[in-house]
């Protein structure tokens, strides 16, 4: 117990020393406050209200720091509300991947044999199928919306998690303490969830942060294509979509560049965060 | 080996049927049926005409029966006709595969040519400038979305510098190679950039692992030249994970790059897929999905074969 605590405080110290991780924590905190809390207090930040005077594509001004869009909606407000969408999709969809990937990985690794063959074959096929095409088909079937994106991105992500868990379970199930658990008569569920699972989750926690970044990228790509978050709801992807119109691309960089920069900085932060956690937990771990 | 391959082929057949059946059923469950699409083009139809149309398309039969009819047709190479423009779907797709192969293939080959040497050098000299460059590209590939990069490149190279075109494969009726290459530079660079990150990471990781092996020391102490040690003893042994990453790109090459093709109006499979989905042109969607599915499964088999050639220690029985 003492040793466990010491290890934890050491990891925490290593994490705090990591400059990139510090940047990530600060940036993400500011972003979360700006996207989720700030609009609650500033009534001027309304993403769906058209300005009666500055109707179409007004340039940045005091009233509208990032100008207005085609129908006079405040672009800063849309940027912040788009951030809500991206962060929500990014944070929730990996949880769905976990919920599917963990049990399947456990089953495949612990029982081996036929379940292993079936689960791992399906995972192989899933992994080599261009995920964009499958996502497009699923979106066409369910209908595009934020909920669909969360579901689809989450479901498509199960393979990586299942493979990680599976690999870990394979090595853990050979360990003596599993053998001894069996000998003292613990049932399979207890062994699986109390012994094997906690010991195979380490690398999964680390990939989780990278996955949040990946999900944000996928969401923005789909919204950019027009099969993701639908107007009037704002998202970073559909804000950038406006730049497919040549005049906007050329003359109004303030309308699409900020959304792109935020996508990059947010995914960068989640990557830094993942690296920070990885290096803090186990500097030698490769992922 | 032969026995294993037969077994492998046999397991692949049910997977193929499984995937195509799932996609087929999903598409038929989708709201806005083919009937609506066709009927809307014909103005107002009375219920009797609608019923006739239904029967002529075979849509009155249960879904499972329809799947097997479809399956029988594709075994004859007949993927049906487009709901959208009544073209032979297979013919339309054939026209699209070439451009996708060309564009994504070029992008991926560029990525391989840059990533493998860079990853190798980064692993050979950690903390060197090579390591820093490869770290940069690996990270940039993971955080910079392709569509944002595309728009940035279009802004700089097409609008500001007026150097490169941004739409399609050819200017007007020109068909010469130079014009084609001009059109390919921007989209191929985006695809190259997108594939590079993972390849660099994979190569670097695999090489690092091998470079620490004892047999590298042995090879050096035998007095072989350093290049031979690194390439023959090092890189060759790191090849398997690298090959996996490279070969896994094959379905991607055939399926095209959806977003990049869409932005640059490239007439490939990716943009065909998006158009088909937007038009609810399900025979087209099914055709693209089936070809991809077959490619994916073939790639998986190919990986097995390549493994056993690249690493004689791997035997299948």
Give a verbal description of the structure.
The complex is a heterodimer of chains A (287) and B (317). Chain A has helices at 2-17, 19-41, 75-111, 113-128, 131-142, 146-156, 158-172, 176-183, 188-200, 202-225, 236-241, 246-251, 253-281. Chain A is mainly α and 287 residues long. The mean pLDDT of chain A is 85. Chain B folds into 2 domains: 2-75, no CATH class; 89-310, Orthogonal Bundle (MetI-like fold). The longest helix of chain B has 36 residues, at 89-124. Chain B starts with a helix and ends in a 7-residue tail after the last helix. Chain B has 317 residues and is mainly alpha-helical. At the A-B interface, helix 4, helix 5, helix 10 and helix 13 of A face helix 1, helix 6, helix 7, helix 11 and helix 12 of B.
Write the layout of secondary structure elements.
The complex is a heterodimer of chains A (287) and B (317).
Chain A: H1 2-17, H2 19-41, H3 75-111, H4 113-128, H5 131-142, H6 146-156, H7 158-172, H8 176-183, H9 188-200, H10 202-225, H11 236-241, H12 246-251, H13 253-281
Helix pairs in contact in A: 1-13, 2-3, 2-13, 3-4, 3-6, 3-7, 3-10, 3-13, 4-7, 5-6, 6-10, 7-9, 8-9, 10-13
Chain B: H1 2-29, H2 34-41, H3 47-57, H4 63-75, H5 89-124, H6 129-143, H7 146-160, H8 177-211, H9 214-221, H10 226-247, H11 250-255, H12 258-263, H13 269-278, H14 282-310
Helix pairs in contact in B: 1-14, 5-6, 5-8, 5-10, 6-8, 7-8, 8-10, 9-10, 10-14, 13-14
């Amino acid at each position: 117990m003492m040793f466990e605590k010491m290890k934890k405080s050491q990891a925490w110290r290593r994490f705090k020393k990591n400059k990139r991780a510090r940047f990530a924590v600060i940036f993400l905190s500011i972003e979360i406050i700006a996207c989720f809390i700030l609009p609650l207090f500033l009534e001027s930040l309304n993403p769906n209200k058209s300005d009666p005077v500055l109707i179409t594509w007004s340039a940045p001004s005091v009233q509208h720091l990032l100008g207005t869009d085609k129908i006079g909606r405040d672009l800063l407000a849309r940027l912040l509300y788009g951030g809500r969408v991206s962060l929500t999709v990014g944070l929730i969809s990996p949880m769905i991947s976990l919920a599917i990937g963990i049990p399947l990985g456990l089953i495949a690794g612990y029982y081996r044999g036929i379940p292993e063959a079936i689960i791992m074959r399906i995972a192989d096929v899933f992994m080599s199928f261009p995920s964009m095409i499958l996502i497009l088909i699923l979106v066409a079937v369910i209908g595009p919306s934020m909920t669909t994106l969360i579901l689809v991105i989450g479901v498509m992500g199960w393979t990586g998690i299942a493979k990680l868990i599976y690999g870990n379970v394979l090595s853990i199930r050979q360990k003596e303490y599993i053998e001894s658990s069996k000998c003292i008569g613990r049932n399979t569920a207890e062994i699986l969830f109390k012994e094997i699972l906690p010991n195979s989750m380490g690398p999964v926690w680390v990939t989780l942060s990278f996955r949040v970044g990946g999900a944000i990228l996928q969401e923005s790509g789909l919204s950019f294509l027009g099969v993701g978050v639908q107007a009037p709801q704002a998202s970073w992807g559909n804000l950038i979509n406006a730049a497919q119109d040549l005049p906007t691309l050329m003359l109004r960089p303030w309308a699409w560049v900020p959304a792109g920069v935020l996508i990059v900085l947010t995914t960068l932060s989640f990557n830094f965060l993942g690296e920070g956690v990885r290096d803090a937990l186990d500097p030698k771990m490769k992922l | 080996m032969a026995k294993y391959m037969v077994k492998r082929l046999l397991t692949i057949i049910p997977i193929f049927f499984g995937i195509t059946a799932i996609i087929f059923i999903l598409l038929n469950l989708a709201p806005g049926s083919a009937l609506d699409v066709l009927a809307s083009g014909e103005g107002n139809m009375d219920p009797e005409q609608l019923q006739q149309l239904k029967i002529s398309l075979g849509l009155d039969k249960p879904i499972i029966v329809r799947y097997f009819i479809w399956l029988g047709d594709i075994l004859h190479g007949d993927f049906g006709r487009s709901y959208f423009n009544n073209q032979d779907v297979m013919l339309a797709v054939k026209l699209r595969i070439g451009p996708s192969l060309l564009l994504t293939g070029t992008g991926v080959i560029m990525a391989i040519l840059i990533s493998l040497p860079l990853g190798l050098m980064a692993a050979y000299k950690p903390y060197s400038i090579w390591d820093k460059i490869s770290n940069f590209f690996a990270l940039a590939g993971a955080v910079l979305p392709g569509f944002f990069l595309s728009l940035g490149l279009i802004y700089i190279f097409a609008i500001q510098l007026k150097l490169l075109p941004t739409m399609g494969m050819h200017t007007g009726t020109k068909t010469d190679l130079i014009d084609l290459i001009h059109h390919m530079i921007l989209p191929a660079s985006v695809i190259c950039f997108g594939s590079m990150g993972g390849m660099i990471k994979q190569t670097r990781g695999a090489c690092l692992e091998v470079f620490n092996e004892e047999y590298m020391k042995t090879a050096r102490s035998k007095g072989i030249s350093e290049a031979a040690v690194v390439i023959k003893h090092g890189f060759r042994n790191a090849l398997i994970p690298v090959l996996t990453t490279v070969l896994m790109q094959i379905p991607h090459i055939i399926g095209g790059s959806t977003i990049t093709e869409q932005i640059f109006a490239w007439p490939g499979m990716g943009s065909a897929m998006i158009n088909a989905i937007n038009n609810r042109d399900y025979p087209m969607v099914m055709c693209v999905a089936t070809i991809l599915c077959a490619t994916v499964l073939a790639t998986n088999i190919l990986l097995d074969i390549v493994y056993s050639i690249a690493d004689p220690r791997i035997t299948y029985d």
